[in-house]
Each structure stands twice: as C-alpha cells, then as structure tokens.
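Hello K.,

You asked for the raw outputs rather than the summary table, so here they are, unedited. I folded two proteins back to back in the same session to keep the settings identical. This is the first:
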Amino acid sequence: MTRSAVRRSPVKVAEAAEPASAPAKPTAQQKRDWDFVARVVEDVEKVCGKGSALIPTATTMLGQVDHWVSTRNFKIDWAIAGGLPMPRPIIPFGRITEIAGLFGTGKTTLLGHIAAETQYMGGVAVILDVEHALDLSYMEKLGVDLSRYIVVQADTYEEGFHKARVLVKSIQTHDPDRLVCIGWDSIGSTPTQAQMDNDDASNVYGIAAKVVGQNLQVFNGMIAKNKIAMIFTNHLYRRIGVTYGDPWESYAGEKFKFFATVRLRLTRIGTLKEKGEGTEEDDDKQTIGHKIKVAVMKNKMAPYLRSVEVPCLGGLGFSLDYCVLEEGIKQRVIEGDKSWRNWKAPSGETIKWQGWQGFQAKMQPHPEYPKLIELVVRNFYEKLQ
C-alpha cells in the first residue's frame, strides 16, 4: 500500500471537561503542621504581645502604605506615581523620601509644597532646620499655615535624630493616627558631633555615613509603624575621575539610599523669561524663574526612572497655574501666537492676555478658569498610563 493510500483515522473531539472536584481533604500531616504553626504563633503572642506574629494569607499586606501626599504639581505627581491610576502612590507616609539636587534647584521649595499639602489633608508639618536659614515668609507664600508648622533646630546629626525620635514618641502618645510630615533641611549640610569637636577633618572621614546609617536603622522602623512621611533634602557633589556613567553623588553614604523609598533628583536646565504686559517685541525679557527637571531615581511603590520638566518661579515655587498655562499651550487648549494668547471659556467668552502677568490678571477674578484648563491638561496625562 502506497503512502498516499494510507488514511489517518479521524481525530476524536475532546470531551467536555468535567467540573472541578471539591478540594481535597487535608491529610493528617497537614493537620499536624497547621496545629504546630498555630501553637507557635500563640506562644509568641503570649510573650511578645498580640500581633507580634501572624499566619498570612494571599491577601495579607505587610508594611502597607495607605496614605500619600501630593507635591501640588500634577506633572511631578505623575512622574513619581509612574503613571499608575488613582489613588496614585506619590510621597508615602511611613517611609523615607529623598529630594536631592544642586543649589537653587527648588529642594526646600518642594518640601514647602508637601508641607502645605499635608496641612491641607488635616495633618501636621514639622521641619528640622539644620541650615538655620529657613525663610518663614516664603513658606507662607507656598501655602504653609505657620500656626500649624513646627520648626525644630538642630546642629548635628545626633541632635537632629534625637529630637526627631522625641517628636515621633510624642505623636504616638497624643494622636497616633494623625498624618505628620517631617522634613530635614538638609542632611547634606549637617555635621556630626565628632566633626564639631575635632579640628582635624582627616580623623573623622566617613563618620557622617556611619552615624546616619546607624540612626536610620532605628528610626526607619519607628516611622513605619506611624503615619509619618520623613523627607530629607540632600546636596549633590561631582565625583572626580568619572568619565562614564553618572558623576553625581549625594551625601550621607550608601546606606541612606538603601533606606529611602522614593529618591528624587532636581536639576536646573534653563531659565524662564517673560515680557511684561504691554511691552514691545524687542524689549528685554525679565527672568521670572527656572526650568527644573525632576527625575525619579528610585521608587519602591511604583515604576520609576521617569522625569518631567516643571517651572519653578520666584516667590511662587512650582506654580501649578504656570504649569497649566505651559501645558495648555503645548496641547493647544490655549490658542494664539507668541505674543497674545486666548482661551474660550465655557460661557462663550474669549479671554485674551499677553504674557504670564496678563494670564494672572485675567484669571485672578475667575479662579475656576485655571481649574477647567487643568482638567483638560490632566486628561492628557491620564491617557499616558
């Protein structure tokens, strides 16, 4: 018989799968294991207290973060959250956050925005002022309520961590459920007690990293058990001899990077200039702020390695209105040429202005208008998820 004459038998259609059977009964060994585990957990709770040990399930969340605070700028929030849907994991309570950058990049400004947002959520903001150069009037311009703002001054790492522990214990005693934001400004400028007592800097080389690491080992667990957002501002320095890779390094050692849940790096990349209202095309523009690049270097809560460019204006900080104006022009929500801009309000009125000052003057009587533009702009970033 030739190969062509060979006929294969028809393939049988698979029968419908039988319904899943009931879960198998636990064996005698499994029952002995479960009984043993339950007795061990019970013994640990008797000695160490209830909740010291537990038997987890698939839905058990260890070290879960339930509260986040915004930076009051949707572009920065979007970068930190990694494009995740609401509720977005931004600056977490119960974890450590680092804001690093060179001078004049808005580190203290961003810390002030977070403090103001914490107060808006009903929490309390605290700042450890180590630089002794805090401008309280500027903090008030950023939205901070000074009547609910606690300023603690320290001279060394040891003194700062000691006062921070006293703060945490006081919070735990009076109201453990209160949201608290503690900012340290800045950890890069803080000396150790050994540096203060020793005139020879060569004898205390590397002591700062050791002191910070030892204190964070204790302090990290304290804030994790409470609703405390610990935020450190830090400085950057350039490593000598680095040809390839990232030449910038931050202070306080490698262990500080390990304990931080979120690490932001701020870089100044440009200058913002605007013409005054009514000025001619050839007139000199005035500097009103800087363009800052915010890069997410580390994030344990969401996808990281994202970056955004945001405006930082003098006296206003990371202005949300200027960000809305800038993004509205990019997305053509706001129309016009380089000189005059116009936007059609829901009422049908066409609002025209010239420059940033003109935008402020037109929108100030109608605070709802910038919010309407913001909704359209935010929708663009929501689609990038």
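The second followed immediately with the same parameters:
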Amino acid sequence: MILAEIDDGPYNVVYLLHIIAVILGTGAAFVTPILAVKTRKAGGSDTALNEAAGVVMGPALLVAGLFGGALVGMSDDFYDFGQAWLAIGGLLWLIAVAAALVAYPPPYIQVSVGDKQPMVSGILHLSLAAMLVLMTWKFGA
C-alpha cells in the first residue's frame, strides 16, 4: 500500500516540512557565527546567542534529515538510499547534526568544545554546503 506518491498531497506536506527544517537549521548555522562576532566586537557576550542557536539548529537539522528519509520512503522507489547522492547526503547529514549538537549544544546536552568551536563550526558549514550541492544537483541519481 502506497501512502503517497511524488507530487501527491501527503508527499508535498512532508517535503514542505523538510524544506522548512532545512531553512531553519542551515540558516541558524550560517547566521549564528556572524552575529556572534558582531556581538563580541560590540563588547557583549554571545552566550545567549549560542544557547538560542542550540535550541533551533541541531533539532531542526535532525528533523530535516528525518523528513528527508521519509520522502525517500514515500517516493515508491523513485528515490533510493542506494543512489550515491542520497548515501553521501546521509553521511553528511550525520556529520552536520553531530557538529551542530557539539558546536551549539541545546540546553539538555552537556558538551564543551572550548576553543575548538570554530573548527567544529567549520565542519558543520562544509558538510551543510556539500549537502546543499548534492541535494540540488542529485549527482548519481
């Protein structure tokens, strides 16, 4: 029994939720470091900003991947995790979620990277940029 097909109502709802989660997670990942630098240059503390980013970024990226996986499942084998772009994208997604949760941990996760935050944030940005390229051009589809 097929619950939805590509461009069907339920599929489009999950696709919309996937895109919203991607925008929230990726937007937070790219804007937070810029705002943090501006805040520190102005003499303020970026603690509240990092905490707010932690509440949005990691969970949004996690949900984006879950909805993306649901889209693959709902596509009735049009998309398959055996396709290179999805397999590589899945690996990059795991790296991005882990990096987001380490660099900007939500309040319920106790992680401290100290002076390594810029490096982990860079890994986050590279994985997100590569994933966006893969999801746009679908290499190996």
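The mean pLDDT is 93.

Happy to rerun anything if the numbers look odd on your end.

Regards,
P.
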